[in-house]
Amino acid sequence: MRCLAVRSGSCRPGIADLDAEGCNTTLLCMRSFVQPTLFARLSAVSRQLSNMSTAPEPAWKTILEKTSKENAGVASTLSTVEGDQPRVRSVIQRSMIMAKPWLPVMITTTDVRTPKVKQITGSSSKVELAWWFPEPVVQFRITGVAHILPNPSHPLATSFPAARLSPSPHFSWEDERYKTYATKMGGALRASFCRPVPGTVIDDYDVGKEWPEKIPPPGEETTDEEREQTKLALNHFALLVIEPSAVEYLELKVVPNRRTKWTLEGEEWRKTILVP
Ligand SMILES: Cc1cc2nc3c(=O)[nH]c(=O)nc-3n(C[C@H](O)[C@H](O)[C@H](O)COP(=O)(O)O)c2cc1C
């Protein structure tokens, strides 16, 4: 059947044509009637396709992406644990990356010296994120584990599961960290990574007058002092990557209200409907 489809020009060799041993039956079939160079090119395309998933992205990811785009700048609330004490704070979600076709990971930025990093890498990597959007009156609650991606020479760098969370063999998490610093942080935020250790005690507010107010994006510095500040900021700048295992979506505008939960089981998100 597949040979006939190719002859009529309507068959696209792809993942569905690979048998259990990984043998592409469509291509084997085609070998007899296409030119060798064309056959080689089709084989290469087929190999690429066989590495890609045709699975649709998780439903919650599509909804969250659309909602957060329509509500740019809305902060989320991240909880961590410190011993038996929950700790929460506001954070901005910067992006989502499809670490695997079924696994979107959420990217926040932080200073590697902050207490939240100690909590995630010391007490427990379990986190929960609540993200409330006043319009269209919905809340997302994302449960998962967090990973810290600091500068490559930081002692925590080796704990980051870079290979497991890479969308492709060519993906570089360090490039992602650098790109996030260079393109998603404003001058004042870049400068904030040059301050003394966050959360430590100072004598009075005036101490802060000594700290840089803004620093330019990397490559646009004009003085040695600014270049040193970029180095320092990039040393402290880290990505906080949340790997979700469950997502709850609460819709309060629709009547009756709706609460939907997706739970990751293997590579599938199982959907359940809950009493709100
Ligand atoms: C609207 C808003 C957004 C914030 N975004 C971030 C952020 O993206 N990353 C971050 O580390 N801190 C952010 N902060 C500061 C944190 O809430 C918190 O004060 C700081 O990170 C120290 O937290 P920790 O002591 O629990 O580590 C934000 C604060 C506010 C009010």
From TrEMBL:
Q: Which InterPro entries match?
A: Pyridox_Oxase_Alr4036_FMN-bd, Split_barrel_FMN-bd
> Which GO MF terms does the UniProt record name?
FMN binding
Q: Which domain of life is it from?
A: Eukaryota
Pfam families, from UniProt? Pyridox_oxase_2 (PF12766)
Please report the stretch or stretches of sequence annotated as the Pyridoxamine 5'-phosphate oxidase Alr4036 family FMN-binding domain: 58-149
Q: Which Gene3D superfamilies match?
A: Electron Transport, Fmn-binding Protein, Chain A (2.30.110.10)
PANTHER family from the UniProt entry: AGL049CP, PYRIDOXAMINE 5'-PHOSPHATE OXIDASE ALR4036 FAMILY FMN-BINDING DOMAIN-CONTAINING PROTEIN
Q: What is this protein called?
A: Pyridoxamine 5'-phosphate oxidase Alr4036 family FMN-binding domain-containing protein
* Species, as recorded: Calocera cornea HHB12733
